[in-house]
Design goal:
CATH superfamily: Class I glutamine amidotransferase (GATase) domain
Radius of gyration: 16 Å
Structural class: alpha/beta
Shape: globular
Helix content: 10-25%
CATH topology: Rossmann fold
Strand order of the largest sheet: 3-2-4-5-1-8-9-12
Number of helices: 6
């Protein structure tokens, strides 16, 4: 399985990451868009249609309700917004099992900001930062989909968040991928590659380490 994560910045910062994404797609691909984290799913769809127009892509569709048809898409795009609204929408429906099944099929998932966070093992990171999300739903369960086990993801990351990220590391036991707004990553099996304009920071029990754009590392080397 290959996963693409972005830190919440404008798509123009991730053009090289997008090219890798398109390389992984078969000709005539259909993309499904999950936009449950945002206020206007149609607006999200229009943005995706513009940013992901490519000769390999034959259709882009909004996925509003969970069904086995989700598994027919060649790739899924999970949009950003409020992380807690998104994880609730996934957990309270069959989206939870469907996304797990989709991941098990080895098909690509491209996730931005809140979408990236919910793929991790825990979503407490969404509270952090100047643009931290509000949990108006008062969730009792902050576990994520755990698709990139054992990692958590933090989006919109800055150096000011590192101390609190370390607290989350020790509270959950999960290492953290901290993505700045202009950071993107490609995770394929056990390899991670950084893209964008800013480095990826890895927060683990081995310490804090930087992966610069263009660099590749073995994820298990941090755990």
């Amino acid at each position: 399985m290959t996963t693409y994560l972005t830190g919440g910045g404008d798509q123009e910062h991730f053009r090289h990451l997008d090219l890798r994404f398109f390389d992984d797609l078969p000709q005539g691909s259909s993309l499904g868009v999950l936009a449950q984290a945002g206020d206007d799913p149609q607006e999200s769809l229009e943005r995706i249609e513009q940013d992901f127009e490519h000769k390999k892509v034959s259709s882009i569709e909004l996925v509003e309700r969970p069904s086995e048809e989700v598994l027919d898409f060649d790739a899924l795009i999970i949009e950003g917004g409020n992380t807690f609204n998104l994880i609730r929408a996934i957990r309270d429906t069959d989206f939870f099992s469907l996304l797990k099944k989709f991941s098990a099929l080895g098909k690509p998932i491209y996730a931005d900001s809140a979408g990236a966070i919910v793929l991790g093992s825990d979503v407490h990171t969404a509270f952090l930062g100047d643009e931290g999300d509000e949990d108006q739903l008062k969730l009792q369960d902050y576990r994520g989909l755990d698709i990139i086990h054992p990692w958590c993801v933090h989006a919109h990351s800055t150096a000011d968040d590192f101390e609190e990220l370390q607290d989350i590391l020790y509270a959950t036991g999960n290492p953290i991928l901290a993505l700045a707004e202009e950071t993107g990553v490609r995770i394929s099996d056990n390899e991670i590659e950084a893209f964008g304009n800013d480095p990826l920071w890895v927060i683990s029990f081995m310490g804090k380490e930087c992966i610069k754009p263009g660099e590749k590392r073995i994820l298990s080397s941090f755990t």
